[in-house]
Amino acid sequence: MREFGMRLSLLAVACVLGVAGCSHAPNEAGDAVALSSSTPNSEQARIADLLARMSTERKVAQLIQPQINSFTAEDMARYRFGSYLNGGNGGPDGDEFAPAGKWLAYADRMWDASIGPLPGDEPVIPTIWGTDAVHGHTNIVGATIFPHNIGLGATRDADLLRRIGHATAKEIEVTGIDWNFSPTVAVARDDRWGRTYESYSEDPRIVAELGAALVEGLQGTPGDADYLREGRVAATAKHFFADGGTDQGVDQGDVNGDIESLKAIHAVPYPAAIDAGVEVVMASFNSINGVKMHGNRDLLTGVLRDEMGFEGVVVGDWNAHGQIAGCTVDDCPQALLAGLDIYMVPDDWKALLENLVAQVEDGTIPMAKLDEAVGRVLRLKLRLGLLDPNAAKPSARPNAGDYALLASADHRALAREAVAKSQVILKNDGVLPLKAGARVLVAGNAADDIAKAAGGWTLTWQGGGELDNSYFPNATSIYRAIESEASAQGGSATLSPDGTADAGAHDVAVVVFGEEAYAEFVGDRKTVVFEDTEGLDLLRKFKAAGLPTVAVFLSGRPMWMNRELNASDAFLASWLPGSEGAGVSDILFGKQDATGRLSFSWPADCGGAPVNGTQGALFNLGYGRSLADRSTMAALPEDCGYLTEGVSTAWFDLGRLDSGISAMGGDTRLPNLIGEGGGVVARGFDKDRQEDAREIVFGPGSTLSLSQRGDTSGDYRILYNLASQPAGPVTLTVGEREIDITRNFALSAGKGWREMIITEQCAPGLGNRIAFTSDAPLTIQIARIARQDMPEGAECSF
């Protein structure tokens, strides 16, 4: 049983946990490390006693957080990591689809490994497991999948968020985990960002209110009897700070501007979360004016702690400390000195631990700084009851192993309520609500696809993909919900994903379509134009046949949808609703009114510029129709330069150079971009098929250039991938202009395939030659190089 504010002595704790030397008395000299002015004296004394008896290696181990696929129970017993995590694609024993019972058994195994006796008087400190349960406990097959935050933002219902947090915490407890890396309290200001759906709103006030409510739901309210007890887990407000404000919405990119102005937007949610008692804050990947947040002492310590008064644990993000200038993943004292408490170091944990120990011993890291960070981790464990002499292993805790709690009837009803409240009607010319007895044609590949409705961070990191409905045993697709309700009202529903069913045999068509699932990195876009025409083609087909149409759009952000809005009689922004499609059908059939209101403004323009508030908005923040509002919408303009881009001329594509293109390594010709010379080696690489790309290996000071004979025009588009950061300066030459792209490549490294766009904006007089020069060894993979006229105002990106 968890207990908060325990009064038992550490002598009892040590004895119960099997520590030798139980006769040790608490340290009388000072007796406490003053972690903060509000830390109870009892906590301070207990933490001081533990620190006094811990070795340097054990202290450092409390700050090391590896992922479950990169260590064993034997490693845990040897090193005693303070915490560990399951990554987006991680699961017990390498099985990300393992049943809940195996997750619980794994938690027990690691708990047992972490509490074995230690020599001498050294105290035993149990480990803790953290997970990304960002819209329900969605790493677990069969758990409740709530709407993503963008949908919850449309509800404006803080009480709903508290109930969702509580339900999520209970399901997390079923598997023996007691720390959630949630909520995301980013204020997304550019919808091109691939994590926009993790933000409640572009309005920081909405984010602050709902983020704090979820914290209270997960943890309980400080001072209440159930705070961090049964049905509660530790929460994490993330990512501090301004992760939603990067230039062009590039994930992990730069945020530039006056600090006070940035704080007025992006820091607003944190005081609210801190007031709600959040125990952990996660540092963000992005830079502020060129300084990586994980190494930004002015903000991690000066603002978060000194100004905002945060006293809890600051945890890092996935290897993000390695992006600090002068750091590597396994060597980075700078992060700890800046204010980080826990390094999230998925795989390189051993080398990092050893380096940190050496840096404490040689004075690079003062012992007082180490004790301060470790003390905060210990305090979290005290508050969670992990150092209680009665602390039980994960499987013996409340709710553990109660698998009926996963997607229980109450939790599914709560998710259905959340889905219904999140739906935003943008258009309704009178077709909604659907009439009783209607014969409904349901079309679109997403209609019966639960994974697509759930989006990223669902069973796998990126979601979607090969996840068919069999992976979601406790869920209802949108089509199945429509079918059930239509039948209950005396009508029928027919599923025809490709729309080939007889339109004349139906009264109305509901077309369910939207974005493919994605998460961070992969979800970044250059524009907010929805280019997939599946839904548009179906809507136009049914409109031509005289069949009234309803568009149900699944997305992680507002998008330019003028064509689809024109082709539909009603348009429902459904966001990423999750496992309860019945919440969508409740609105379609009018079982309850539509109360969802936009928490992000909807773009009127198809360009890439961010839209916030009313400037450039088709529908303003707060817009949304009730079912009673059946007013007709005027036709919208459908012109969009990004839909009519000039024809692309490929210099290199599908493993072949165009006949007019010359590739050179130094002064050596590389036919079909294969061969070596001038310090450059170009060899075939399989991206999607055999040798459809090239892997280019640069020696120090070498140059790869490509040029086109004769007249040439168009902007450059280059599809590339970097596995690791450059070891030295990298220069891009376009025509006669040299551009330092070292930092751009550093940000792109390890994030998969990305597109480089070079326009007149950043390289006037584009010319007919491009060249890459690397001062140090560098490996890059290139799949495509093309020239194409981009729309006016298109931005450069690297």
Short description:
The protein contains 21 helices and 33 strands.
Task: Describe this protein's structure.
- By secondary structure, the chain is an alpha/beta fold.
- It has 21 helices and 33 strands.
- Strands 20, 21, 24, 25, 26, 28, 31 and 33 form an 8-stranded antiparallel beta sheet that branches.
- α7 runs antiparallel to α15 (409-422).
- The longest helix has 17 residues, at 158-174.
- The protein is globular and about 80 Å long.
- The chain starts with 9 loop residues before the first helix and ends in a 10-residue tail after the last strand.
Supply database-style keywords.
disordered N terminus; alpha/beta; 798 residues; 33 strands; 8-stranded antiparallel sheet
Number of strands: 33
Q: Overall mean pLDDT score?
A: 91
Label the overall shape: globular
What characterizes the major β-sheet? Answer: 8 strands, antiparallel
* C-alpha-based Rg, rounded: 28 Å
Report the uncertain regions. Answer: 1-34
Report the β-strand fraction as a percent range: 15-25%
Number of helices: 21
Give the helix proportion (percent range).
25-40%
**What class would the helix/strand composition place it in?**
alpha/beta
Task: Compute the separation of the termini in Å.
Answer: 53 Å
Please render the helix and strand layout as text.
Layout: H1 10-16, H2 41-53, H3 56-61, E1 64-65, H4 73-79, E2 83-85, H5 100-114, E3 128-131, H6 149-155, H7 158-174, E4 179-180, H8 204-219, E5 236-240, E6 254-255, H9 259-267, H10 269-275, E7 280-283, E8 287-288, E9 291-292, H11 297-307, E10 313-315, H12 333-338, E11 343-344, H13 349-361, H14 367-383, H15 409-422, E12 424-428, E13 439-443, H16 450-454, H17 478-488, E14 492-496, E15 508-514, H18 534-544, E16 549-554, H19 562-567, E17 570-575, H20 582-588, E18 602-603, E19 617-619, E20 649-653, E21 656-657, E22 661-665, E23 668-669, E24 675-677, E25 680-685, E26 693-698, E27 702-708, E28 715-721, E29 730-734, E30 737-740, H21 742-748, E31 754-758, E32 769-774, E33 778-788
Parallel strand pairs: 1-11, 2-3, 3-4, 5-7, 6-8, 7-10, 13-14, 13-15, 15-16, 16-17
Antiparallel strand pairs: 8-9, 12-17, 18-19, 20-21, 20-33, 22-23, 22-27, 24-25, 25-26, 26-33, 27-32, 28-31, 28-33, 29-30, 29-32
Helix pairs in contact: 2-14, 4-5, 6-15, 7-8, 7-15, 8-10, 15-20, 17-20
